[in-house]
Amino acid sequence: MDDIQATILDRLRGSGGGKAFTPKDFLDVGRRDAVDQALSRLVRKGDICRLGRGLYYYPRTNPRLGIAVQPDIDDIADALARKTGTRIAPSGATAANRLGLSTQVPAKPVYLTDGRSRRVQVGDTEIVIKHAAPKNLPIGSGISATVIQALRYIGRDAVTPEVVSRIRRKLSGTQKAQLRNDSRYIIDWIADTVRLIVNKEEEVVAHG
User: Fold this and answer.
1) In angstroms, rounded to a whole number, what is the distance separating the alpha carbons of residues 66 and 48?
2) Helix (H, G, I), strand (E, B) or coil at 184
């Protein structure tokens, strides 16, 4: 059991902290019951924090405030998807707000899934997960799903050079590469917008 705890803790420390995870992320380390017991002991020792049933995170400290920072909602949603073996993507309104394309703040973050609908309480935040047909869920990485859902939400006519620039600034080089790859599976006008996002030298938005 001590070996399992040490292995889990070493892996979490190597990740840099601040990420949500579930017991399923460590089933290569030991049996499920042994992993569950190891995580419970790490919580009691204060090495990790529990977000909810079967949901944890390794604390990352805000250097300015000196307090532990919880994972962001998208990261928690990704962990829930791994936990249940389902696909999860932010709703259009949630995605647009996350990317700064909408000033409307959803009362509760809403995510779509090909699994069952449910509500998950994480601290003071309730995450609403709604079932959707698989065809309505974007294919690709989490950040690609967020961008695609946000663009669908604001609509083709609302895509301006400022929107393109704002999304571009939110993405790392790796995320842009993922978005470019995932754009092969989406409708033409969104694919054209993605091309503009990942290619900075293009300044005019093509509406296709």
Assistant:
1) 16
2) helix
pLDDT band at residue 1 using 50, 70 and 90 as cut-offs? low
**C-alpha of 135 from chain center:** 20
pLDDT band at residue 128 under the 50/70/90 scheme: very high
Q: Which residues pair with 129 in a beta bridge?
A: 111, 118
pLDDT digits (tens, 9 = 90+) for 33-76: 999 999 999 999 999 999 888 899 988 777 777 777 778 888 89
Q: Is 100 helix (H, G, I), strand (E, B) or coil?
A: coil
CA-closest candidate to residue 9, choices 21, 80, 51:
21
Cβ atoms 22, 56 nearer than 8 A: yes
Helix (H) or strand (E) holding 119, with range, is: strand 118-122
Number of other CB atoms surrounding residue 169 within 10 Å: 10
Q: For the chain, report the end-to-end CA distance as a whole number of angstroms.
A: 58
Instruction: Kindly state the tokens that stand for 48.
Output: 């990790």
Sheet holding 118-122, edge to edge: 88-90, 110-113, 125-131, 118-122
126's enclosing H/E stretch is strand 125-131
Domain ranges, ordered by start, for the chain: 2-69, 73-198
2-69: what fold?
Arc Repressor Mutant, subunit A (1.10.10)
Q: Model pTM?
A: 0.77
- Tokens 């532990």 locate to 68
Assigned token pair, 93: 């309104």
